[in-house]
Task: inverse folding
């Protein structure tokens, strides 16, 4: 089933195309890594795919319906967006913050149910925050706050997750744990994952497909085995990279 589809998509910012005339589809359970230099347009593209900003041209569909034809509540139930930075204007506990993910599923005057709280607690446990449910969100470290944002998205239970630098502020063990968690959600729940990443080798290991943004509107998209090569990645980052094989695993290091 196609969860995300783009036809003739052009995205620009400040008069510069970051994506030009792109066609692609993402199915349930697939993981797509977006790679590119700083300023190449990864965040702008993710916001456009989420419906936060309008494309310059083309059509984006989520779960078979164009964004322009979906109501805000319908869209909020289908796609989750993880921003680069989290803003906590008011005091709230970790559990209360995770429960924000259930708001798209509630009627206007409804309160969260016991079932909603159970989903939130399961998501917190999945990111190793189950012992911090009553902590004030303002007392969390940067890494803990990032894991809470991921737990909030999982509590939302969307079909499409759009993640802008989901590994920000995380140390290595939590980076790998979060990527394993997302892969498990993709495999077991059919979650379609789109994530902007900076680590080439983690993208190679934890994505099925890659989308390379060259910053001038040009892209390359396809299976990681075909798209992530030393020549394309060297051109993408403007620095020579070479490939190293370790059994069946591939790695890229600076040349």
Result:
């Amino acid at each position: 089933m196609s969860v995300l589809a783009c036809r003739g998509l052009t995205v620009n910012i400040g008069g510069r195309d970051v994506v030009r005339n792109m066609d692609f589809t993402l199915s349930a359970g697939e993981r797509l890594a977006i790679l590119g230099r700083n300023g190449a347009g990864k965040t702008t593209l993710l916001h456009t795919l989420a419906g936060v900003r309008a494309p310059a041209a083309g059509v984006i569909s989520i779960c078979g319906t164009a964004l322009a034809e979906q109501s805000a509540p319908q869209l909020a139930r289908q796609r989750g967006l993880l921003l680069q930075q989290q803003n906590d204007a008011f005091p709230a506990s970790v559990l209360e913050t995770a429960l924000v993910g259930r708001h798209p599923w509630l009627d206007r005057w409804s309160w969260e149910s016991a079932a909603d709280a159970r989903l939130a607690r399961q998501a917190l446990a999945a990111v190793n925050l189950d012992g911090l449910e009553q902590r004030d969100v303002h007392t969390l470290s940067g890494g803990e706050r990032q894991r809470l944002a991921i737990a909030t998205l999982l509590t939302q239970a969307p079909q499409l997750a759009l993640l802008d630098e989901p590994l920000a502020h995380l140390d290595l063990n939590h980076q790998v744990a979060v990527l394993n968690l997302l892969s498990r959600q993709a495999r077991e729940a059919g979650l379609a994952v789109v994530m902007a990443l900076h680590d080439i080798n983690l993208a190679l290991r934890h994505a099925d497909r890659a989308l390379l943004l060259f910053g001038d509107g040009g892209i390359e998209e396809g299976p990681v085995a075909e798209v992530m090569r030393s020549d394309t990645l060297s051109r993408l980052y403007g620095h020579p990279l070479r490939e190293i094989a370790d059994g069946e695993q591939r790695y890229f290091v600076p040349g």
Observations:
- The longest strand covers residues 2-13.
- The mean pLDDT is 95.
- The first helix runs from residue 42 to 50.
- The two ends are 40 Å apart (CA to CA).
